[in-house]
Amino acid sequence: MKNAELHTHSCYSDGQISPVQLVRLAKKRRIKNLALTDHNSVKGIKEAIREGKRIGVNIIPAIEVSCDKGEVLGYFIDIKNRKLINEIRRGSKKIQDSIKDRCDKLSKKGYNIRFSELQRKYPKARGNINMFYIFYELFLKGYGETRKIVKELEDQKEYKRKVKRMSLIQGIRLIRGAGGVPVLAHPWIDDEVLKEKNFREYIKEGLKGIEINNGDRAPLRLVRHSKRMKNLIKKYKLIATSGSDYHGKALVKHMSGNHELGANNCDEKVVEELGKLSKNR
């Protein structure tokens, strides 16, 4: 039965609702298994687990780690693992410094945006504010649709500024070290990720799966890499996962594709397969 939602975000990263609200919404949509995969944060997982136990939703402790060539999802992680906590905290600090710098530069160009304002407005995301907040805040202030803002900032070279992040291999190791199961998140975003020479290294380090659908509206890169992903899954006997990459109702209409909670569920058997590979089960 397709009742497992494996890619969601709460207000502890760039989602718009609390973990409790997320779990309750999952219950309404008859989702039995829910993974909270906040960017570089495990702060909301205990809240989600408590509410899940109360209303009958199985919560999978998970994370989405930001890396240099994309992102890696980690399922069934030990949320108390000190190395995991220290590394994501260190990585978030670099991102925060970069976001503050971008806000300062955008402000000088005439945009009504302040990093201190974002910190006050989104206290639970403090220490984990990313570009998504800049896009959404500018949208709220009348600068146009978020996609228009992204294009505008790309043209001004203010979107993809370099931030030194851990490599995908380091991300995989970090998740494995926390007893979790590493899965490549939306790998079609970066062409380098699915190249055979790189992929072999990920397998050596313990990669166990590929996310083949996160609700994106079939961009050319996804279409081009679809067969490639299926071949890699077959060749290396990997787990194919999917999820909505849900960030909140207000953002669903501003993201391309279908990112409604529960729109891209996977089978409960996938959860069982991931659980068998975890050191924490």
Provide an overview of this structure:
By secondary structure, this protein is an alpha/beta fold. The chain has a domain of 175 residues: TIM Barrel, CATH 3.20.20.140. The chain is built from 11 helices and 7 strands. A 7-stranded mixed beta sheet has the order 1-2-3-4-5-6-7, sandwiched between helices. Helix 1 packs parallel to helix 2 and helix 5 packs across helix 6. It is globular and about 50 Å long. The mean pLDDT is 90.
Oligomer: single chain
Reported by name, the CATH topology of the domain at 4-79 and 179-277 is TIM Barrel
Q: Order of strands across the biggest sheet? A: 1-2-3-4-5-6-7
Number of helical segments? 11
Largest sheet: 7 strands, mixed
- Radius of gyration, in angstroms, nearest whole number: 18 Å
| Name of the CATH class of the domain at 4-79 and 179-277 | Alpha Beta
Mean pLDDT: 90
What is the CATH homologous superfamily assignment of the domain at 4-79 and 179-277?
Metal-dependent hydrolases
Return the string of H and E elements. Answer: EHEHEEHHHHHEHEHEHH
Low-confidence stretches: none
Share in β-strands: 5-15%
Number of strands: 7
The CATH architecture of the domain at 4-79 and 179-277 is Alpha-Beta Barrel
List the helices and strands and how they pair.
Elements (H helix, E strand, L loop, with lengths): L3 E5 L10 H10 L4 E4 L8 H11 L2 E10 L2 E6 L6 H27 L6 H7 L9 H10 L5 H10 L12 H10 L3 E5 L10 H10 L3 E5 L6 H16 L3 E4 L6 H4 L15 H10 L4
Parallel strand pairs: 1-2, 2-3, 5-6, 6-7
Antiparallel strand pairs: 3-4, 4-5
Helix pairs in contact: 1-2, 5-6
